[in-house]
Amino acid sequence: MSAAARDEGFMREALAQARLALAAGEVPVGAVVVHGDRVIARGHNGPVGSHDPTAHAEIRALRQAAQVLGNYRLDGCELFVTLEPCAMCSGAMMHARLARVVYAAADPKTGAAGSVVDLFAQPQLNHQTQVQPGVLAQESAAVLSDFFRSRRQEARVNARPLRDDAVRTPEERFRDLPDYPWEPHYVHDLPSLAGLRMHYLDEGPREAPLTWLCLHGNPAWSYLYRRMIPIFLAAGGRVVAPDLIGFGKSDKPKKDGAHTFEWHRQVLLEFVERLELRNTVLVMQDWGGLLGLTLPMEDPQRYRGLLAMNTALGTGDVPLSLGFVAWRDMCRKKPDFDVPRLFERGNPHLRPEECAAYGAPFPDAGHRAALRAFPLMVPDKPEAPGAAISRQARDFLSRQWKGRSLMFVGAQDPVLGVPVMEALRQQIRGCPEPIVLPHAGHFVQEQGEEIARTAVGYFRP
User: Fold this and answer.
1) Could you read off the pLDDT of 292-320 as tens digits, one per residue?
2) I want to staple 224 with a disulfide (CB 3.0 to 4.6 A). Which of 136, 203, 220, 441 is the partner?
3) Residues 44, 216, 259, 442: which is the catalytic one?
4) Active-site pick, 7, 107, 251, 413
5) So what's the pLDDT on residue 154?
6) How far apart are CA 361 and CA 220, in angstroms?
7) Is residue 442 flagged as an active site residue?
8) CB 406 within 8 Å of CB 454
9) Considering 7, 107, 243, 286, which one is annotated as catalytic?
10) Once rounded to an integer, what is the mean pLDDT over residues 12-21?
């Protein structure tokens, strides 16, 4: 093995330590101490978690190495670290009598191996340590850049003031969610929001031939589309997935009465206009359809297609399904129902951490106003709020809709299952028979890979 390959191999060990620091929320720096050709100690940054200003990766690795060798002098040892050491760590390395220090990325702010000062180049010192910079520098710099970019984004997010009549789910509840790697985006200056902050995902090229606007229902949020988003993106599409106010990472009004059909619809209309969405396929389920199906008539040129899953129009002149009435009654009697348990019952294939992710936005009753309000907002009589606009949408979709339509229905859904979707199909001009997924329930997106692949081919320009 060449000397360069050897150095890279040990630096990758240090990078693995840096990623441990990243997972713990620390600045991602890692270090290993090598004796001969064997790693004898490892360390990663931990000042924040340990409340210890000396808990740098290098210091932790040096302490461990000294214990292994039974000597504070580490003669003949080398230290590999992913970031140029600071003055504290450089001093410790020289006291330890290290033979060699190898670092990856330079640190122009606090680096003490040549960037700001070079403590290793002082001829007055009685021990000289060889320094080798730049080994896997780009990989280490990328890990650091991603960390600080994320921190800046989080700082911008948290800088937005929260209205007194709303709450905001702590960001740490959304860390390390399975299969949800996308950057958050926020909008707060839509007129209808009046300063509330609304979260959305926005992935893929802005000039994509198709934009998939994914609208969730209650009590879900944009996490619901994690299985479909990668397939839409792989086909070259743009994906926009907002969290309705009261759900997901969006702000949550404290009062149930803050939520109305008309208000949520207006927020979506302004949101679509703000993002200048074109060539849009509306991807809808549950309340995503109750609201989303009323959007195209306002600006038909924006919309290319409808992808509807287990949803309906709330026209108020048709009796609500018995399944929905039972769901509404349950929500009245048990307003603090267990959200993860709800998803587990209907989707037994989900991992526990996936079910838990659905409950992340709702840590307590104060964050659940939307969950209590939405079941009661479904129009159940002709004069109910939202019913008139839904009847207008029904007339538009049955007579004037010119786009394509596609339906999937989870046959195990007792609320908005096959009969409800068949009734909706008859209200949409040119809509083919629903594709029935026999083992899927209400949250049909949990079998969304098949749906997304079919939709990509069906709506392909």
Assistant:
1) 999 999 999 999 999 999 999 999 999 98
2) 220
3) 442
4) 413
5) 67
6) 9
7) yes
8) yes
9) 286
10) 96
Q: With contact defined as beta carbons under 8 Å apart, do 163 and 252 qualify?
A: no
The whole-angstrom separation of Cα 415 and Cα 323 is 4
> Quick one: pLDDT at residue 156?
65
Residue 23 has pLDDT above 70, yes or no: yes
pLDDT score for 315: 96
pLDDT of residue 273: 97
pTM (predicted TM-score): 0.69
Q: Which residue has the tokens 């287990």?
A: 310
Distance from chain centroid for Cα 388: 35
- Is 251 tagged catalytic? no
Computed over every residue of the chain, the mean pLDDT equals 94
State how far the Cα of 344 lies from the Cα of 342, in Å rounded to an integer: 5
* Token pair 């040549």: residue: 114
What digits encode the pLDDT tens for the residues 169-197? Answer: 999 999 889 999 999 999 999 999 999 99
pLDDT at 100: 96
Compute the chain's Rg from CA coordinates: 28
Residue 59 has pLDDT above 90, yes or no: yes
235 CB neighbour count, 10 Å cutoff: 19
Q: Would strands 252-253 and 211-215 be described as parallel, antiparallel, or unpaired? A: unpaired
Whether 395 is catalytic? no
Q: Provide the 10 A C-beta neighbour count for residue 218.
A: 22
Tens digits of residue pLDDT in 356-378: 999 999 999 999 999 999 999 99
3-state SS of the chain is: CCHHHHHHHHHHHHHHHHHHHHHCCCCCCEEEEEECCEEEEEEECCHHHHCCCCCCHHHHHHHHHHHHHCCCCCCCEEEEEEECCCHHHHHHHHHCCCCEEEEEECCCCCCCECCCCEHHHCCCCCCCCEEECCCCHHHHHHHHHHHHHHHHHHHHHHHCCCCCCEECCCHHHHCCCCCCCCCCEEECCCHHHCCCCEEEEEECCCCCCCEEEEECCCCCCHHHHCCCHHHHHHCCCEEEEECCCCCCCCCEECCHHHCCHHHHHHHHHHHHHHCCCCCEEEEEECHHHHHHCCCHHHCHHHEEEEEEECCCCCCCCCCCCHHHHHHHHHHHHCCCCCHHHHHHHHCCCCCHHHHHHHHCCCCCHHHCHHHHHHHHHCCCCCCCCCHHHHHHHHHHHHHCCCCEEEEEEECCCCCCCHHHHHHHHCCCCCCCCCEEECCCCCCHHHHHHHHHHHHHHHCCC
- Angle at 305 (CA atoms; ends 300, 310), nearest 5 degrees: 115
At residue 457 the predicted structure's pLDDT band, cuts being 50, 70 and 90, is: very high
